[in-house]
Protein backbone atom coordinates (compact mmCIF):
# COMPACT_ATOMS: atom_id res chain seq x y z
CA UNK A 1 0.00 0.00 0.00
CA UNK A 2 2.02 2.99 -1.22
CA UNK A 3 1.76 6.28 0.64
CA UNK A 4 1.70 9.39 -1.56
CA UNK A 5 2.39 12.60 0.35
CA UNK A 6 2.03 15.94 -1.42
CA UNK A 7 3.96 18.84 0.11
CA UNK A 8 2.60 22.07 -1.37
CA UNK A 9 4.46 25.37 -1.12
CA UNK A 10 1.98 27.85 0.38
CA UNK A 11 4.39 30.77 0.71
CA UNK A 12 3.25 34.19 -0.53
CA UNK A 13 5.41 33.91 -3.66
CA UNK A 14 3.11 31.14 -4.94
CA UNK A 15 0.60 33.91 -5.76
CA UNK A 16 2.72 34.98 -8.75
CA UNK A 17 0.98 34.43 -12.07
CA UNK A 18 2.02 32.80 -15.31
CA UNK A 19 1.41 34.10 -18.83
CA UNK A 20 -1.96 32.28 -18.78
CA UNK A 21 -3.13 34.27 -15.76
CA UNK A 22 -3.16 31.34 -13.34
CA UNK A 23 -1.19 31.49 -10.10
CA UNK A 24 1.52 29.00 -9.20
CA UNK A 25 -0.70 27.69 -6.42
CA UNK A 26 -3.50 27.02 -8.93
CA UNK A 27 -1.04 25.12 -11.10
CA UNK A 28 0.09 23.08 -8.07
CA UNK A 29 -3.50 22.15 -7.24
CA UNK A 30 -4.16 21.16 -10.84
CA UNK A 31 -0.98 19.07 -10.89
CA UNK A 32 -2.11 17.06 -7.86
CA UNK A 33 -5.53 16.43 -9.40
CA UNK A 34 -3.98 15.34 -12.71
CA UNK A 35 -1.57 13.04 -10.89
CA UNK A 36 -4.47 11.33 -9.12
CA UNK A 37 -6.25 10.79 -12.46
CA UNK A 38 -3.13 9.30 -14.04
CA UNK A 39 -2.55 7.06 -11.03
CA UNK A 40 -6.18 5.86 -11.05
CA UNK A 41 -5.51 4.06 -14.35
CA UNK A 42 -3.47 1.47 -12.44
CA UNK A 43 -5.59 -1.14 -10.59
CA UNK A 44 -2.94 -1.16 -7.84
CA UNK A 45 -3.94 2.41 -6.93
CA UNK A 46 -6.90 1.12 -4.91
CA UNK A 47 -4.63 0.61 -1.93
CA UNK A 48 -2.99 4.05 -2.11
CA UNK A 49 -3.06 6.41 0.85
CA UNK A 50 -2.88 10.16 0.16
CA UNK A 51 -1.58 12.84 2.51
CA UNK A 52 -1.38 16.62 2.19
CA UNK A 53 1.13 18.90 3.95
CA UNK A 54 1.85 22.62 3.48
CA UNK A 55 4.52 25.13 4.54
CA UNK A 56 2.44 26.33 7.50
CA UNK A 57 3.74 26.09 11.06
CA UNK A 58 3.36 22.61 12.60
CA UNK A 59 0.96 21.07 13.47
CA UNK A 60 -1.25 23.24 11.23
CA UNK A 61 0.79 22.21 8.19
CA UNK A 62 -0.82 18.75 8.16
CA UNK A 63 -4.04 19.09 6.16
CA UNK A 64 -4.68 15.39 5.52
CA UNK A 65 -2.82 12.69 7.45
CA UNK A 66 -3.40 9.12 8.61
CA UNK A 67 -6.99 9.63 9.80
CA UNK A 68 -8.41 11.74 6.96
CA UNK A 69 -10.18 10.16 3.98
CA UNK A 70 -9.89 11.02 0.29
CA UNK A 71 -12.81 13.47 0.39
CA UNK A 72 -11.08 15.46 3.14
CA UNK A 73 -7.85 15.42 1.11
CA UNK A 74 -9.58 16.92 -1.94
CA UNK A 75 -11.45 19.51 0.12
CA UNK A 76 -8.28 20.69 1.87
CA UNK A 77 -6.45 20.82 -1.45
CA UNK A 78 -9.03 23.13 -3.01
CA UNK A 79 -9.04 25.45 0.04
CA UNK A 80 -5.28 26.05 0.15
CA UNK A 81 -4.19 29.70 0.35
CA UNK A 82 -0.72 31.10 -0.33
CA UNK A 83 0.52 33.27 2.53
CA UNK A 84 3.59 32.88 4.64
CA UNK A 85 7.27 32.02 4.40
CA UNK A 86 9.25 29.45 2.38
CA UNK A 87 10.05 27.20 5.35
CA UNK A 88 11.02 24.18 3.26
CA UNK A 89 13.27 22.58 5.89
CA UNK A 90 10.60 22.55 8.59
CA UNK A 91 7.96 21.38 6.10
CA UNK A 92 10.11 18.44 4.99
CA UNK A 93 10.78 17.49 8.59
CA UNK A 94 7.05 17.58 9.40
CA UNK A 95 6.34 15.44 6.33
CA UNK A 96 8.89 12.77 7.24
CA UNK A 97 7.71 12.76 10.87
CA UNK A 98 4.16 12.20 9.64
CA UNK A 99 5.27 9.26 7.49
CA UNK A 100 7.29 7.77 10.35
CA UNK A 101 4.55 8.17 12.96
CA UNK A 102 3.64 4.49 13.23
CA UNK A 103 6.90 2.78 12.25
CA UNK A 104 8.19 2.22 15.77
CA UNK A 105 4.90 0.63 16.84
CA UNK A 106 4.71 -1.64 13.80
CA UNK A 107 8.37 -2.70 14.16
CA UNK A 108 8.94 -2.17 10.46
CA UNK A 109 12.46 -0.76 10.97
CA UNK A 110 13.53 -3.84 12.97
CA UNK A 111 16.32 -2.04 14.83
CA UNK A 112 19.30 -4.20 15.82
CA UNK A 113 18.07 -7.33 14.03
CA UNK A 114 19.29 -6.73 10.49
CA UNK A 115 17.82 -4.64 7.70
CA UNK A 116 14.82 -6.33 6.11
CA UNK A 117 14.06 -4.99 2.60
CA UNK A 118 10.75 -6.88 2.67
CA UNK A 119 9.62 -4.94 5.78
CA UNK A 120 8.73 -1.72 4.01
CA UNK A 121 6.12 0.98 3.71
CA UNK A 122 6.87 2.49 0.27
CA UNK A 123 6.30 6.24 0.33
CA UNK A 124 6.61 8.89 -2.38
CA UNK A 125 6.89 12.50 -1.20
CA UNK A 126 6.13 14.99 -3.99
CA UNK A 127 6.75 18.65 -3.23
CA UNK A 128 5.57 21.40 -5.59
CA UNK A 129 7.34 24.73 -5.08
CA UNK A 130 8.47 27.83 -6.96
CA UNK A 131 12.11 27.34 -5.97
CA UNK A 132 12.52 30.82 -4.47
CA UNK A 133 14.88 31.65 -1.62
CA UNK A 134 14.30 29.81 1.65
CA UNK A 135 13.00 32.16 4.32
CA UNK A 136 12.20 32.03 8.01
CA UNK A 137 11.43 34.47 10.79
CA UNK A 138 15.21 34.94 11.16
CA UNK A 139 15.69 36.00 7.53
CA UNK A 140 16.81 34.46 4.23
CA UNK A 141 18.61 31.10 4.30
CA UNK A 142 21.17 30.13 1.68
CA UNK A 143 21.13 26.40 2.46
CA UNK A 144 18.45 23.83 3.18
CA UNK A 145 18.49 22.68 6.80
CA UNK A 146 16.08 20.19 8.35
CA UNK A 147 15.51 20.55 12.11
CA UNK A 148 17.33 17.79 13.96
CA UNK A 149 14.91 17.55 16.85
CA UNK A 150 11.91 15.26 16.37
CA UNK A 151 8.96 14.71 18.71
CA UNK A 152 8.69 11.04 17.72
CA UNK A 153 9.92 8.44 20.24
CA UNK A 154 12.77 6.36 18.82
CA UNK A 155 13.82 9.02 16.32
CA UNK A 156 17.33 8.94 17.82
CA UNK A 157 17.77 5.43 16.39
CA UNK A 158 18.02 6.81 12.83
CA UNK A 159 20.50 9.45 11.63
CA UNK A 160 18.47 10.70 8.67
CA UNK A 161 14.92 12.06 8.93
CA UNK A 162 13.86 9.76 6.08
CA UNK A 163 13.88 5.96 5.70
CA UNK A 164 15.21 3.83 2.87
CA UNK A 165 11.73 3.20 1.44
CA UNK A 166 10.83 6.92 1.25
CA UNK A 167 11.75 8.92 -1.87
CA UNK A 168 11.48 12.66 -2.42
CA UNK A 169 10.63 14.26 -5.76
CA UNK A 170 10.37 18.00 -6.38
CA UNK A 171 8.44 19.82 -9.09
CA UNK A 172 10.04 23.28 -9.19
CA UNK A 173 7.79 25.67 -11.12
CA UNK A 174 9.72 28.06 -13.37
CA UNK A 175 6.87 29.11 -15.66
CA UNK A 176 7.38 32.63 -17.08
CA UNK A 177 5.00 35.52 -16.48
CA UNK A 178 5.16 36.50 -20.16
CA UNK A 179 4.60 34.27 -23.17
CA UNK A 180 7.89 33.07 -24.64
CA UNK A 181 8.58 33.57 -28.33
CA UNK A 182 11.14 30.77 -28.44
CA UNK A 183 10.03 27.31 -29.61
CA UNK A 184 9.51 24.81 -26.82
CA UNK A 185 12.29 22.25 -26.51
CA UNK A 186 11.26 18.60 -26.60
CA UNK A 187 13.13 16.03 -24.53
CA UNK A 188 13.81 15.04 -20.96
CA UNK A 189 13.07 17.55 -18.20
CA UNK A 190 16.29 18.82 -16.55
CA UNK A 191 16.90 18.87 -12.82
CA UNK A 192 16.53 22.16 -10.98
CA UNK A 193 19.41 24.10 -9.43
CA UNK A 194 17.62 24.93 -6.18
CA UNK A 195 18.58 23.69 -2.72
CA UNK A 196 16.12 20.79 -2.71
CA UNK A 197 17.80 18.90 -5.57
CA UNK A 198 20.53 17.38 -3.42
CA UNK A 199 17.97 16.28 -0.83
CA UNK A 200 15.98 14.53 -3.55
CA UNK A 201 19.02 12.67 -4.84
CA UNK A 202 19.97 11.44 -1.36
CA UNK A 203 16.58 9.74 -0.99
CA UNK A 204 16.74 8.18 -4.45
CA UNK A 205 14.46 10.75 -6.09
CA UNK A 206 15.12 13.79 -8.26
CA UNK A 207 13.94 17.32 -9.00
CA UNK A 208 12.31 18.65 -12.16
CA UNK A 209 12.73 22.17 -13.55
CA UNK A 210 9.26 22.85 -14.99
CA UNK A 211 9.08 25.72 -17.51
CA UNK A 212 5.88 24.90 -19.42
CA UNK A 213 2.57 23.16 -18.82
CA UNK A 214 3.61 20.42 -21.23
CA UNK A 215 6.75 19.77 -19.19
CA UNK A 216 4.62 19.57 -16.06
CA UNK A 217 2.36 16.94 -17.63
CA UNK A 218 5.46 15.03 -18.75
CA UNK A 219 6.83 15.08 -15.20
CA UNK A 220 3.56 13.84 -13.71
CA UNK A 221 3.43 10.91 -16.13
CA UNK A 222 7.02 10.08 -15.19
CA UNK A 223 6.26 10.25 -11.45
CA UNK A 224 3.34 7.84 -11.79
CA UNK A 225 5.75 5.28 -13.22
CA UNK A 226 8.10 5.70 -10.25
CA UNK A 227 5.61 4.36 -7.69
CA UNK A 228 7.45 1.12 -7.02
CA UNK A 229 8.00 -1.12 -4.04
CA UNK A 230 11.68 -0.94 -3.16
CA UNK A 231 14.43 0.41 -0.92
CA UNK A 232 17.37 2.73 -1.64
CA UNK A 233 20.70 1.24 -0.56
CA UNK A 234 24.24 2.62 -0.49
CA UNK A 235 26.74 0.13 -1.93
CA UNK A 236 30.31 0.98 -0.90
CA UNK A 237 33.28 -0.50 -2.72
CA UNK A 238 35.98 -1.85 -0.41
CA UNK A 239 39.30 -3.39 -1.35
CA UNK A 240 40.78 -4.00 -4.80
CA UNK A 241 38.75 -5.06 -7.83
CA UNK A 242 38.28 -8.84 -8.15
CA UNK A 243 40.17 -10.65 -10.89
CA UNK A 244 38.19 -11.14 -14.12
CA UNK A 245 36.83 -14.59 -14.93
CA UNK A 246 38.05 -16.25 -18.14
CA UNK A 247 36.04 -18.27 -20.62
CA UNK A 248 36.98 -21.49 -18.83
CA UNK A 249 35.57 -20.15 -15.56
CA UNK A 250 39.02 -19.61 -14.01
CA UNK A 251 40.52 -16.35 -12.80
CA UNK A 252 42.57 -14.64 -15.51
CA UNK A 253 44.98 -12.07 -14.06
CA UNK A 254 46.30 -11.11 -17.51
CA UNK A 255 42.96 -9.75 -18.69
CA UNK A 256 42.08 -6.16 -17.74
CA UNK A 257 39.57 -6.11 -14.91
CA UNK A 258 37.14 -3.88 -16.78
CA UNK A 259 37.55 -5.21 -20.31
CA UNK A 260 33.96 -6.43 -20.56
CA UNK A 261 32.36 -4.40 -17.81
CA UNK A 262 30.38 -1.33 -18.79
CA UNK A 263 31.61 0.38 -15.64
CA UNK A 264 34.35 -0.65 -13.20
CA UNK A 265 33.55 -1.59 -9.62
CA UNK A 266 32.46 1.53 -7.75
CA UNK A 267 30.37 2.81 -4.86
CA UNK A 268 26.79 3.56 -5.84
CA UNK A 269 23.38 4.60 -4.56
CA UNK A 270 20.62 2.41 -6.02
CA UNK A 271 16.94 1.60 -5.66
CA UNK A 272 16.46 -2.14 -5.15
CA UNK A 273 13.09 -3.39 -6.32
CA UNK A 274 11.26 -5.58 -3.78
CA UNK A 275 8.71 -7.74 -5.55
CA UNK A 276 5.39 -8.08 -3.70
CA UNK A 277 3.52 -11.36 -3.46
CA UNK A 278 1.19 -11.79 -6.45
CA UNK A 279 -1.72 -12.92 -4.26
CA UNK A 280 -1.45 -10.75 -1.15
CA UNK A 281 0.45 -7.78 -2.57
CA UNK A 282 2.80 -7.90 0.43
CA UNK A 283 6.55 -8.51 -0.09
CA UNK A 284 7.85 -11.77 1.35
CA UNK A 285 11.44 -12.49 2.34
CA UNK A 286 13.54 -14.51 4.75
CA UNK A 287 17.09 -13.15 4.91
CA UNK A 288 17.89 -9.66 6.25
CA UNK A 289 20.88 -7.55 5.26
CA UNK A 290 23.34 -7.95 8.19
CA UNK A 291 24.15 -4.90 10.28
CA UNK A 292 27.65 -4.01 11.41
CA UNK A 293 27.85 -3.48 15.16
CA UNK A 294 31.62 -2.93 15.29
CA UNK A 295 32.28 0.57 16.72
Write the topology of this structure.
Blueprint: E1 3-8, H1 24-39, E2 49-54, E3 62-64, H2 70-78, H3 88-99, H4 103-106, E4 123-129, E5 134-136, E6 139-141, E7 166-173, H5 196-202, E8 207-210, H6 213-225, E9 230-235, E10 268-273
Parallel strand pairs: 1-2, 1-4, 4-7, 7-8
Antiparallel strand pairs: 2-3, 5-6, 9-10
Helix pairs in contact: 1-6
Using brief descriptors, characterize the structure shown.
VWF_A, six-stranded mixed sheet, 295 residues, alpha/beta, Integrator_subunit6, Protein DDX26B
Describe the structure.
The chain is of the alpha/beta class and 295 residues long. 21% of the residues lie in helices and 18% in strands. It has one domain (3-229): von Willebrand factor, type A domain (Rossmann fold). The strands form 3 sheets. Strands 3-2-1-4-7-8 form a 6-stranded mixed sheet, sandwiched between helices. The protein has a two-stranded antiparallel sheet with strand order 5-6. Helix 1 runs parallel beside helix 6 (213-225). The chain is globular. Residues 3-227 form the VWFA domain.
Query: What is the annotated CATH architecture?
Result: 3-Layer(aba) Sandwich
CATH top level label = Alpha Beta
In whole angstroms, how far apart are the ends?
36 Å
Beta strand %: 15-25%
Q: Count of DSSP E strands?
A: 10
Largest sheet: 6 strands, mixed
Counting DSSP H or I runs of 4 or more residues, the number of helices is 6
Into how many domains do the coordinates divide? 1
Q: Averaged pLDDT, please? A: 85
Protein name: Protein DDX26B
InterPro entries: Integrator_subunit6, VWF_A, vWFA_dom_sf
Organism: Neovison vison
GO biological process, one term: snRNA 3'-end processing
Amino acid sequence: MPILLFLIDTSASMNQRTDLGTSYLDIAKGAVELFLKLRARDPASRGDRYMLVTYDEPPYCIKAGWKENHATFMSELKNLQASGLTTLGQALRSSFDLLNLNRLISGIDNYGQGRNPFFLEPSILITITDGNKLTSTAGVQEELHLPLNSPLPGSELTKEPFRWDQRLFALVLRLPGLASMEPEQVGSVPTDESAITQMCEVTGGRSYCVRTQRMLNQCLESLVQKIQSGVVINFEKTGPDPLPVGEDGLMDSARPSNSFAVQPWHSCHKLIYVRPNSKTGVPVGHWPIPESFWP
